[in-house]
Description:
By secondary structure, the protein is α/β, with parallel strands linked by helices. 32% of the residues lie in helices and 17% in strands.
Amino acid sequence: xxxxxxxxxxxxxxxxxxxxxxxxxxxxxxxxxxxxxxxxxxxxxxxxxxxxxxxxxxxxxxxxxxxxxxxxxxxxxxxxxxxxxxxxxxxxxxxxxxxxxxxxxxxxxxxxxxxxxxxxxxxxxxxxxxxxxxxxxxxxxxxxxxxxxxxxxxxxxxxxxxxxxxxxxxxxxxxxxxxxxxxxxxxxxxxxxxxxxxxxxxxxxxxxxxxxxxxxxxxxxxxxxxxxxxxxxxxxxxxxxxxxxxxxxxxxxxxxxxxxxxxxxxxxxxxx
Length: 272
């Protein structure tokens, strides 16, 4: 039995299968953690969703920003694109999107010593807060009023966590932190505009990766995340970043997380 975590797939089904073959993944006794962004931009998002759904008993997933976008498209809140159209047109498209909508924003495994969120965990959240607030927005997304709630999530919200803010602003912060965060300022205020790799110039402007925040609350678990292809594979104290830019001609990467040392395996990805 092995437990593997992989970064953003983004519909690159062929690369996913090549990686699973390379790590000798067997869903009858292995487990696969997927750090979000299962779909969009790659050439076969439908096959990717169908495969993961077929082995759902062996998969732990967190929602990424592209997954949320697909759900919003399904509800008519956003425009589709050619890479997502096949899902919407498929006979099982509704089933697959309902399954996606049932997935969490956060996975936690105390025994393995890891947690996982697509973009990471806000430096203002300790683990208890992260669990509680993830469940809060999961309940909204899985409710009968998901369409109304989700429409409000795409409007600009607060960049610092504030318990006194409106319920909607708090929800926007939670969703944005779990799915879109990369940088923060010294006061833990999040920046959702910068997408590039960390540089000295950005640091001089007060911007640093969220996991380097001096005000970051302790989690006592290592955080697996994706979302940041320009950061790439990043192993540091307390974090494991796995988005290695498969869609952009980079690679798709897996890390074995049930062994003493993280074993890293990658396959080259041409984005198809």
